[in-house]
């Protein structure tokens, strides 16, 4: 799966949330200062070329929608993160976040509960 830039990822987050939208709808959801219409339109065309977004014609405009679901992208990104920085080990990745104090004991307990639920 191709990697997204920060700007592309922001647009995708909005599209995943909205399910489908035109450029104006996406800009409306963005934080200030809002980017120019042409900027967002260009990023969407890039996402389309990368295979992340498709569209249907509606009137004179386009309605865009994600071709890649958020879960698929999240799994690919997490896998790439683990592979590139943690020798492919999710255990090493979790250990890293524990050492950085980004994970509390409560967070770990919740993760373990989720794992146990999936095993059942």
From TrEMBL:
GO biological process, one term: negative regulation of DNA-templated transcription
Pfam families reported in the protein's UniProt record: Penicillinase_R
Protein name: Putative transcriptional regulator
InterPro entries reported in the protein's UniProt record: ArsR-like_HTH, BlaI_family, WH-like_DNA-bd_sf, WH_DNA-bd_sf
Alphabetical UniProt keywords: DNA-binding, Transcription, Transcription regulation
One MF term in the entry's GO annotations: DNA binding
Protein's organism: Nonlabens xylanidelens
Sequence similarity: Belongs to the BlaI transcriptional regulatory family.
């Amino acid at each position: 799966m191709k990697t997204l830039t920060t700007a592309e990822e922001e647009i995708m987050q909005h599209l995943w949330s909205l399910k489908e939208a035109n450029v104006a709808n996406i800009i409306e959801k963005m934080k200030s200062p809002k980017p120019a219409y042409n900027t967002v339109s260009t990023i969407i065309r890039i996402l389309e070329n990368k295979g992340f977004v498709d569209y249907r014609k509606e009137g004179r405009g386009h309605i865009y929608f994600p071709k890649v679901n958020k879960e698929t992208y999240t799994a690919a990104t997490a896998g790439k993160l683990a592979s590139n920085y943690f020798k492919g080990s999710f255990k090493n990745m979790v250990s890293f976040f524990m050492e950085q104090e980004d994970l509390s004991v409560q967070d770990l307990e919740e993760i373990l509960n989720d794992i146990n639920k999936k095993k059942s």
